[in-house]
Amino acid sequence: xxxxxxxxxxxxxxxxxxxxxxxxxxxxxxxxxxxxxxxxxxxxxxxxxxxxxxxxxxxxxxxxxxxxxxxxxxxxxxxxxxxxxxxxxxxxxxxxxxxxxxxxxxxxxxxxxxxxxxxxxxxxxxxxxxxxxxxxxxxxxxxxxxxxxxxxxxxxxxxxxxxxxxxxxxxxxxxxxxxxxxxxxxxxxxxxxxxxxxxxxxxxxxxxxxxxxxxxxxxxxxxxxxxxxxxxxxxxxxxxxxxxxxxxxxxxxxxxxxxxxxxxxxxxxxxxxxxxxxxxxxxxx
Length: 285
Ligand code: SF4
Prior knowledge:
The protein is an alpha/beta fold. 36% of the residues lie in helices and 11% in strands. Helix 8 packs across helix 10. The relative contact order is 0.17. The site of iron/sulfur cluster (SF4) has 12 residues, from helix 4.
């Protein structure tokens, strides 16, 4: 018996586009396999306001070049008396927040910052916002089609775990089933007439200073654009002493490091990578 093409999708489904190369590749394969966007499927991008302009442009370019509508969603506060249901705003490339507004609103509403153990940003800005969007479209059950590759086994295992709460959509991981790896994704983009204008090894995707990224990568990014540190520093001042991580210096210290190293040539300090540091942050994860 031949296995069904993993990219043939049956709706209703939310096709999660994080704005990275991997989910862009997945979207392309789905459009190819289904002769366009499958019936009852919606492509979504949940904007935190901290993605880089290159990411936003890439999402817009995929949409325009491939003729596929992408719904841009922003978390916009909890519903009265609830922490599980939220309001959303529908935006587009022009109107999307670019100064971390949805993320700051969430931090205000919760009174705490996310950290590697409690990723309140992913849970709310991505997962709950995606769920609110699908519910607002009248769905009560749907698949979440996510760009998780075969070389991300911990994420595959987590999303496939029996007993997982799939209230935000049932995970469908076509790339993992098709045994797609990072090298396949990069090879695909090398053959395309456009690409995400971020270094594939630079870890500049997702939120610009995401606390899950390796410290040296954050510092390196702040060396080039120190002003990118300011939003993170400001969040750590509300309330004073709040931090995104308690196992590394606060963002004002990372900026100080960046300014210091910017004067030293060459810059040469690193800490080990983790799988988490390299992943796309998306709606059902
Ligand atoms: S990229 Fe990082 S900071 Fe942004 S939502 Fe995901 S986990 Fe949070």
